[in-house]
Amino acid sequence: MSYKLHYSMLLPVEGMIDENGVDLTHEKAAAALRSMADHLEANPEVLKQILGKSPVADEREDRWVLRSTTKKNVICKAGGGWVEVDSRNIDLEDTRTSEQVASMSPGADEHSVWVRPENIGYLPVLATLRGEDGAYLGQVDLCDWMAWSWNSCEIDTSIAADWDFTQTLDWIADDEENPFYDDPNILTALRKEVPFTMKIEESEIPRAIEYLDELYPGFIDQIGARPSDDDPSL
User: How far, CA to CA in Å, does 212 sit from each of 130, 155, 205, 223, 226?
Assistant: First the structure.
C-alpha cells in the first residue's frame, strides 16, 4: 500500500520572549519550519536524528498510477507519454486519487491498468471486468487482494468457479481494509454498468498461477488447479 506517514520532531523556534510560548505566532512557526527545511537540505544525514527512525502514525493513501500491463516499472505521465521509473521516484503529479480516475474519460485501455505506486515493479495479475452483455469495462490487478485475502476461502472458491472473482466484490463497501475498497478500476466499472463480472481470462491464468506459486507455494497443486501441461516438476 501507499501510505502517508506522520513523524514527530522537536522544532526550535527562535525569538520567543516567553518560556511558555504564549507569543508563538504562525509567522514564527512558519519561519522555523523553513529554517528546518533548509537545514535538512544542507545536511541530509541528520534526517533520522530529527524525525526519528519510525513514524508515530500512518494513513493509507488513495494514490494510483496508470501502468503498462506488460512491462515492469513503466507508467504513464500526467502530461502524456510512457516512462520507465522506480516506484521510489514517482512524481506525485503523475498520481491520481480513485475519484479522479473514475471521472476520467477516456480511462485505461486494455494495455494499461491503475495500480498503487509501489506495485509497478512486478507484472500484474489481471482480472477483466465485463458487463452482462460481455462488453469490456476495464481490468483490475488482483495481486494486493490475493495477498490480503489469504486467510479466507475466496481464492480457491473463485478458482473453482472457472477463475471468476465476481463474488469477492460483494462486501468491499463495508471493509476499508479490503484492497478493492478504493480501487479506481472497480469504481470506474461501477459507474459504467451494474452488474458486471470480474474474471481472470484464459490468457492470464498462467500469470495468476505463477504469482500464486510465489505467494503460497504448493497451494495451486493442493487445490488441483494446475493445468496438466504446467507441472512445475517438469
Answer: 24, 10, 10, 12, 11
Q: What CA–CA distance (Å, rounded) separates 185 from 125?
A: 14
Q: Each residue of 191-200: pLDDT tens digit?
A: 876 789 999 9
DSSP state of 164: B
Q: What is the pLDDT of residue 231?
A: 58
What are the residues whose beta carbons fall under 8 Å from the beta carbon of 74, sequence distance 6 or more?
67, 68, 82, 83, 84, 85, 120
- Terminal alpha carbon distance of the chain: 36
Rounded Cα distance, 220 and 51, in Å: 44
What is the reported pTM?
A: 0.78
Cell for 133? 452483455
Q: Tell me if the bond preceding 232 is cis, omega within 30° of 0.
A: no
Note the pLDDT of residue 233. 55
How confident is the model over 125-135, as pLDDT tens digits? Answer: 999 999 988 98
Backbone angles phi, psi at 179, to 5 degrees: -55, -25
3-state secondary structure 35-74: HHHHHHHHCHHHHHHHHCCCCCEEEECCCEEEEECCCCCE
Residue 41 C-alpha cell reads as 537540505
Mean pLDDT, to the nearest integer, of 141-168?
91
Distance set, CA 177 to CA 57, 148, 184 (Å): 16, 9, 15
